[in-house]
Amino acid sequence: MIGIKVPKNNADKIRRVLLNHNIIKLDMKIKRVEDFVYIPLINTPNKELLEELNVYEVNIVDTEFEIHIKGPKSLKDYLKDKIDPELIEEIKKSFDIIGEIVILEIPEEFDEYKYIIGEAALKFTKRKAVYRKTSKIKGIIRTRELEHLAGEDNSVTIHREFGNRLKLDVKKVYFSPRLATERRRLSQQVIDKEIIVDMFTGIGPFSISIAKEHTVKIYAIDINPDAYKYLKENIKLNKPEGTVIPLLGDVKEVLKGLNIKSDRIIMNLPGTAWSFLDIAIKSLKSGGVLHYYEFTSEFQIPIDKIIETAYPRKVEVINCRKVKSKSPGIWHMGIDARIY
Questions:
Q1: CATH class of the domain whose range is 2-62
Q2: Domains of the chain: which residue ranges?
Q3: CB neighbours of 165 closer than 8 A, spacing ≥ 6?
């Protein structure tokens, strides 16, 4: 079969040129031999194309290529002809990957398909375990019930995020991979030597992200003993530049005991963070920054709560954003405010 022999270091550039000319035989596999790459062609390149390619020292050859067997490319492909396509679209809306674990949301009315869906998700993601949400997040320790569907029944994993490693048990702690960009964004605002309070730290994703890049002191607080356990493990696992001090207990009691003034406070507990605003603002230095999160329909609702709680201190709203959707019309919103 006709092909083109190209030096390995130029193969990607040449492949793009050939793709632009629609001349690659896509149903055959590209092969690599020592320092050369062989690309299968539909026909011999014309004179103009050969002149363009010759700067890369290519040769037209007659060689053997393997047939490229196309496999499923998406979850939809894996489930094709097995379940209703509308159901597939519904599942894709709530599809989280945490380390080696996939967590799905499957409506109860589709119970009969849950194991088929679980196996498809396992094959598609090439992870080790698939679980299904069977309850909402509940209680002060913020956990949810999960049902094992496919792969290993092991709920402990290590999630990687922007170079950080976060160990957790998805059955025992709360963690959202969808906040990775938000954690990165917040970390980039921090200045060295700040004193920071991470009020509902969980396994420490905000604290680890910040302390890996900045020489700061972070008081990382959570009431869940399992989250506290993994927080301590994650500090050891990541060896941050800054100091992360893990603290177990109710935020209000812990902050009273610490009696510190901080430069920055993180309040990522969007369901009930409003009830902790008073002690958070009291713990902020003049000019300190509050990162407050709430489930709400409009920005002004959380902004008004911050202004009312901070009075008579002045509030400067630095940033408002929709972090992610929670339900129709309701968003996980973030407010950055400087309190004077």
A1: alpha beta
A2: 2-62, 75-154, 177-339
A3: 158, 159, 234, 237, 238
Which CATH number is 75-154 given?
3.30.300.110
* pTM of the predicted model as reported, rounded to 2 decimal places: 0.77
CATH number of the domain at 177-339, please?
3.40.50.150
Domains 2-62 and 75-154 share a fold: no
- Per-residue pLDDT 10s for the chain (340 aa) are 888 898 888 888 888 888 888 888 888 889 888 888 999 998 888 888 888 887 777 888 888 888 876 666 677 778 877 777 777 777 666 789 999 999 998 888 888 889 999 999 998 889 999 999 999 888 888 889 999 999 999 999 999 999 999 999 999 999 999 999 999 999 999 999 999 999 999 999 999 999 999 999 999 999 999 999 999 999 999 999 999 999 999 999 999 999 899 999 999 999 999 999 999 999 999 999 999 999 999 999 999 999 999 999 999 999 999 999 888 899 999 999 999 9
> Residue 298: which residues within 8 A CB-CB, separation 6 or more?
none
3-state secondary structure of 91: helix
Q: Please confirm whether the linkage preceding 312 is cis (ω < 30° from 0).
A: yes
